[in-house]
Design a protein that fits this description.
About 45% of the residues lie in helices and about 10% in strands. It has about 190 residues and is mostly helical.
């Protein structure tokens, strides 16, 4: 019996050291060596200070900026420590209110825009942290931003095209526009990745 207890304890110690210490340190070291930017959160720096991440959305509500997807995280939007969707079902009145509030905000910011509003401008992503919008959502906002900044719509369309990433391997996912990177470029801010 003592032999079995000894084997069980030694197995526990060896597995704890192997899977709890050696493996995590090895993977962390390899990721820092091979993919340092990604391993550190894909941060965006301005003048050596982090101002955001390429992977986490940020709120924008000024009419001169492209607006992000809604965020359902609490207690504040885009809270990376509390990634979650709203979990509101399609018949929940709170979901309809949130969507209507966003539609009203979009119409108030650009009253002349009669185009259909892309769904990603009025709904949150599953994580509540999505940093991207669809090219259609960016296109919908161009008129408002052109007026607010006194820029041509053509120049804004070109900027959106520059920040549009295609499908992975041409097959997986959808084309997307990173809102933070686009807005920083719109401001002429030079950043480091």
């Amino acid at each position: 019996m003592f032999k079995q207890i000894r084997i069980a304890l030694l197995s526990t110690i060896v597995l704890t050291i192997g899977t709890g210490l050696i493996y995590p340190f090895a993977i962390t070291g390899l990721s820092q060596l091979l993919f340092p930017k990604q391993a550190n959160g894909s941060l965006i720096y301005k003048d050596g200070k982090p101002i955001g991440s390429r992977l986490i959305g940020q709120p924008f509500d000024d009419p001169k900026y492209f607006w992000s997807r809604l965020s359902a995280t609490s207690p504040m939007p885009y809270n990376a420590a509390n990634s979650s969707g709203s979990n509101l079902g399609p018949t929940n009145p709170a979901l309809f209110k949130a969507i209507q509030d966003r539609i009203d905000a979009l119409h108030k910011a650009d009253p002349g825009n009669k185009e259909p509003i892309p769904v990603d401008l009025v709904t949150a992503s599953g994580s509540g942290l999505d940093p991207h919008i669809s090219p259609a959502a960016a296109e919908y906002q161009i008129n408002r931003i052109a007026k607010a900044r006194g820029l041509s719509e053509g120049a804004l369309r070109q900027l959106v095209r520059q920040h549009t990433t295609g499908r992975f391997l041409g097959l997986i996912g959808e084309s997307a526009v990173n809102v933070l990177e686009l807005n920083l470029d719109l401001d002429g801010v030079k950043v480091d990745f």
